[in-house]
Amino acid sequence: MTEIPVTSLSDPAVLAVDGVSVRLSGRQILRDVSFGIGPGEFVGLIGSNGAGKTTLLRVILGLQAPAAGHVAVCGQPRAEARRLVGYVPQKIQLDPDMPVRARDLVGLGLDGHRLGIGWPSRGRRQAVDEMLRAVDADRFADQRVGNLSGGEQQRIMIAHALISRPRLLLLDEPLANLDIRSAREIVDLIARITRQQHVSVLISAHEINPLLPVMDRVVYLAAGRAATGSTDEVVTTEVLSDLYGYHVDVINVHGRILVVAGHGDGLDVPADHAAGVQISGQPHAIGE
Amino acid sequence: MFAPFMMNAWAVATIVAVVAGVVGFFVVLRGAAFVADAVPQGAFAGAAGASLIGVNTLVGLGVFALAGALGISWLSRRSRSDVATALTLVLLLGLGALFLSFTTEYSAEIFSLLFGEVLGISQGEIAPVAVLGLVCIAAIAVIYRPLLLSSLAPEVSAARGIRGRRMELLFLVTVALATSMTLPVVGALLIFSLMIGPPAAARSLTSSPLLAIALSVVIAVITVWIAIAVSFETNWPVGFFVGVGGAICYAAGRGWAMLRGSSRRPAQ
Amino acid sequence: MLSSLFAPGFFASPPVHLALLTGGLAALVSGIVGTFAVQRGQSYAGHALADISVTGGSGSFLIGISPLWGFAVIGVLAAAIMDMIGVRRPRGRDLATGIVRGAGLGLAALFLYWDATSTNATGAAITILFGSMFTIDPAVVSLVIVVALAALAIIGILYRPLLLSSVSGDLAAARGVPVRLVGLLGLIAIALAVSLAAVTIGTILSTALLVGPAATALRLTSRPGRATAGAALIGVAVTWLGIVLAYDSFTWPPQHDGWPVSFFVVALIFAVYLLTSVPWRTLPRRPWPVRAPARAHAPAQPPAHEPAQAVPVRLAHRRTDR
Questions:
Q1: What phi, psi does B27 have (nearest 5°)?
Q2: Residue A89, phi then psi, degrees to nearest 5
Q3: DSSP assignment of C166-191, as one string?
Q4: Distance of alpha carbon B98 from its chain centroid, rounded?
Q5: Which of A59, A60, A97 is the mutation pick for testing B, counting most B CBs within 10 A?
Q6: How much of chain A, in percent, has pLDDT values that exceed 90?
Q7: Rg (CA), chain B
Q8: Which pairing describes strands A76-77 and A42-46: parallel, antiparallel, or unpaired?
Q9: Does the CB of B204 have a partner CB in chain A at under 8 Å?
Q10: Is residue B98 part of a domain?
Q11: Candidates 3.40.1440.10, 3.40.50.720, 3.50.50.60, 1.10.3470.10; CATH matching C27-204
Q12: Cα A178–chain centre separation
C-alpha cells in the first residue's frame, strides 16, 4: 500500500480532528477519524449517504459528543470556538407566511446570539447589504425567506454563515438536490467568496465531481473510516478498496472520476466490531 | 361606557392586548398554538384550586400556568410535543375538576374565569397587571434575537451556542406569565385567540419581523376595544367577541395573503 | 382485598351499570380513533373538537335536546370546517385549529350566557364541561351506541387507507386513496369519539381519553393493530377503574358527594403514561413510521453517471500495514 503523504503546514490548523469515534444506537458510525484543515483550504468530505458525513459535521459543530477523540478549531476546543465556525445546513424549514425577510435572516448571522432587539445601525445594514451582494441575493433581499426557492434560501444561509467572518465554513450536502448547472454555480460562488474572505471550507457531498475544480484536498469517508489527501492520492482503486473493505475500481474519464463496484472476488472480511481500525492516511502532523 | 368604573376595564384590556400581540408573534412563528392554548386552561384549574383554599386566584393562576409550562417542556423530551401538551393539559384540568367538585357555589365565577368578565375589574388590579405586562414584554425583548434565530433555524442556532431547550423553556414561561395576567379580562378559554388571531393577520401585512410585532399589537388592541365596547352594550360575554374577533383577524389575514400572493412569485 | 376496592352496592346500582356501559364504549371508541389521531399529529384537533362540542352542548341546552346531539352535530360541523380551511403544513394547521376553536368557544360563551339567563340552567356549564357520569339519562344509551358504531364503522372501513395516508400522504395518493376525503372522515371520527367521551367525562377532559391511552399504547408497540387494540384496552380499563374509584369516593371528604370520575380517569391516564415512559429496558426504538418531514435527506440515488456509489459497504476490520 502506498503511503499517503501528509501536507504539513507551518500555520496552526483551522480545524484539527483527532481520533474521533462515534457510536449511535449500537452502531459504530465513525471510528478513529483524524484529519486537519489549514487556512484557506477547500476540503471536500465525500461519502455515500449513511457513511457518517453528517455525524462528523455534527461532532465538529459541537452538536454531538464523540465517544473518543477531540476536535479543535484554531487551536481551541470546539465549545469555545463557536464563533469561528459558520454552518450551512442542508435545508431549513420555513413557512411562506413567516414575516422574516432574507435580509433579516442574514442580519441574524451577525448578532443572532446576542440578547436584546438590536439597534438598527448603518454599519449593520451595510454589512448585510455587502454580504447579500456577495452571494448575488440583493434582488430578493426584501422578500420573505419562506417564499424563496431552495437555491435562493441556500445563498441566504451561506450569507448568514459568512457574515460574522468565521474561519471555517461547514456545508452539509449543499449540492444534494441540485441539477448539474446549479451545482456548478453554487460551488463557484462558495469558492469565490471563501477565497476572498480567507475562510476554510469543509463541504460534504456524495458526489465528488462537482467539487473537483475547486477542492484542495478530499476527506473520503466510508465504513466509518476516513482517508485524507489530495484527490489523486486518495481516490484510487487501492485506497478506496481498502476503505470500503470491498473491491472498487476508480476510473478516470476526461478528468472526471467514477467509482465502480468491482467484480465479486471481493475481499473476505470477518465482521469484528471490537477491533480498532487503522485509518489510511494520517495527516496528524498538521499544526504540530 | 366610559364611566369611571369602566376605565379600569379599558386600561387592563389594553395592556392585555399589547402583551398578547407581542407574545403572540412568537406563538404563531413557532407554531405553538396548542401550547398557548393549553397553558391558560391549565391556569384556570389553578384559579379554581386557589379559591378553594382561600388564596388569591391570581396566585393560583400563576402557579398552575407555570406548572403547565414546565410540565409541557419536561414531557416534550420524552414524546412528541403535541402529546406532551395534551397530557399536561388534561392533568391540570382534571385537578381543576376535582377542586371544583369540592365547592358548590361556583357557576358565575367559573364562567367569568373561562369566558371573561369586563365589569369585574377593580382599580387595584391595574397596577399589578401593568407590572406583569411590562415584565412579559421585557422578557420577550431581551431574548428576541436568539429566540428568533432558534425559531427559524434550530440547527444553525444550536451550532452558534444558542440552547434550543433553554429558549423553549423561557418562551413557555413567558407565555405562562402572559396568560395568567390576561385571564381575568378575557377568560382562560379565549385569551389565546388574542394571541394568534392578530399576529396571524399582521404577518400577512408585512414581511419585517419588528413591524409585524407592532402591527400585531395594534390589531390586538383594536380587537379588544371593539370586543369590550360591544360586550358592554349587549351584555354578552367578552369572550364571544374575542373569539369571533380573532377568527375574523385570521380570515382577513389569509384573504389578504391570497390576494397578494397569487400575483407575486419570485422568479427562479 | 378485592371487595374493599368495590364499595358496597357497586355492582347492583343501575347508574353504575349505565356508567360502565357508556364510559366503556366511549373509552373503546376514543382509544381506537385516538391511535390514528396521535399518529397524524391531531391531538390538538381532537382537543379543539372537544372544546367546540361545548358549543354544541350549550346550544342543545337552549333548544332542549340531549347534549349528545349537540356535541355530535357541532363536532362534525367543526371537523368539516377545519378540514375546509385545511392547511397542509403542521404549523399552519395548528393555527387554523386554534382559530376555529376560538370561534367555536366564543359561540359557546354566548350560548352558555343565554342558557344561564333564559332557562335558569346554571348547572349547564358544569355538566357540559365536566360531564355527569353517574347521572346519564338512560334514554341516551341508544344514541350513544349509534354514535359509537358510526365512529367504529368509519375506522373499520377506512382502516387501511387511513393507515397509509397517516404514514405518507403522497404514497396514499399514488395508490388512488382520496387523501382529502379520508382525512375529513378521520376528523369526523374524532369528533364523534370526542362527543361520546364528552357525555361521560365532559368536553374538557375527553381529550384525555383520546390522546392518553393511544399515546401510551404507541410507546409500547410499533405495530398498528396492536397499538389500536392496546389503546382501546387501556382506555376501557382506566375508565372502569375510574368509575370504581369515583363510586368509592362517595364516602370520602370533603363533600361526601364523590370525587368526579373525570379526575380519576385523567389521573390514571397520566400515571399509566408516565409508567410506560420510564425506561424499564432500553428498547431499540422502532417508532411507527411517521410522515417524514420534507427536509429529510434525498434517498441515496446516485446520479446516473456514478451508479456504483450504491456499493454496499461492509465494515473493514483488517489492519493495513503501511
A1: -60, -45
A2: -75, 170
A3: HH-HHHHHHTT--HHHHHHHHHHHHH
A4: 25
A5: A97
A6: 24
A7: 19
A8: unpaired
A9: yes
A10: yes
A11: 1.10.3470.10
A12: 17
Angle formed by the axes of helices B191-205 and C90-114, nearest 10° = 130
Percent of chain A topping pLDDT 70: 86
pLDDT at A265 over 70: no
Q: What's C109's DSSP letter?
A: H
A33, A226 contact by CB (below 8 A): yes
Q: How many CB atoms lie within 10 A of CB C284?
A: 6
What does the alpha-carbon distance between residue B209 and residue B143 come to, in Å, rounded to a whole number?
14
Please determine, for residue B33, whether its predicted confidence score (pLDDT) is greater than 70.
yes
A21 phi-psi bin (left φ>0, alpha ψ -120 to 50, beta other): beta
Query: C264-301 pLDDT, tens per residue?
Result: 888 888 888 888 876 665 555 555 555 444 443 333 33
Kindly indicate whether the ipTM for this predicted assembly is greater than 0.90, answering yes or no: no
The minimal CB distance from B209 to the residues A61, A85, A104 is found for: A104
Matching residue, cell 384550586: B49
Read off the C-alpha cell for C255.
363533600
B122 within domain boundaries = yes
Task: Determine the pLDDT at residue C319.
Answer: 33
Domain assignment present for B167: yes
Are the Cβ atoms of A115 and B142 closer than 8 angstroms? yes
CA neighbor of A151 nearest in space, from A186, A194, A187, A191: A186
Q: Which of B169, B242, B76, B188 is nearest to C43 (CA)?
A: B76
Neighbours of B115 (CB within 10 A): 27
Query: Domain locations in chain A?
Result: 15-95+166-285
**Average pLDDT along chain C:** 74
Collapse the DSSP code of A275 into the 3-class scheme (helix H, G, I; strand E, B; otherwise coil) and give the result: coil
Chain position carrying cell 391516564: C269
CATH number at residue B107: 1.10.3470.10
How deeply is C2 buried, as exposed, middle or buried, from its count of CB atoms within 10 A (0-12, 13-18, 19+)? exposed
Per-residue pLDDT of B121-160, as tens digits, reads: 777 778 888 888 999 999 999 999 999 999 999 889 988 8
Tens-digit pLDDT profile for residues A98-142 = 899 999 999 998 888 888 887 888 888 999 999 999 998 989 999
Segment holding C101, helix H or strand E? helix C90-114
C2 CB-near residues (< 8 Å, 6+ apart): none
Q: The C-alpha cell of A115 is what?
A: 440578547
Q: pLDDT grade, residue A242 (50/70/90)?
A: confident
Contact pairs from chain B to chain C, CB under 8 Å: 187
Round to whole Å and give the CA distance between C186 and C231.
Answer: 17
Query: Which residues touch A280 (CB under 8 Å, ≥6 apart)?
Result: A1, A4, A225, A227, A239, A242, A243, C320, C322
Binary contact (B242, C106; C-beta < 8 A): yes
The three cell numbers of residue A26 are 449500537
CB C194 within 8 A of CB C57: no
Closest CA to B227 of C192, C110, C150, A281: C110
Range of the domain at B59: 4-192
Q: Does C103 score more than 50 pLDDT? A: yes
C286 has a chain A CB within 8 A of its CB: no
The architecture (CATH level 2) of A15-95+166-285 comes to: 3-Layer(aba) Sandwich (3.40)
Backbone Cα Rg of chain C: 23
User: How does pLDDT run across B6-19, given as a tens digit for each residue?
Assistant: 788 888 888 989 99
Q: Which one of B72, B76, B82, B179 makes the best mutation probe of the C interface by having the most chain C beta carbons within 10 Å?
A: B82
Q: Please count the structural domains in chain B.
A: 1
Burial of residue A120 (CB within 10 Å: 0-12, 13-18, 19+) is: exposed
pLDDT, residue A8, reads: 41
Q: Peptide bond before C213: cis, by omega within 30 degrees of 0?
A: no
Query: Is residue B108 a part of any domain in this protein?
Result: yes
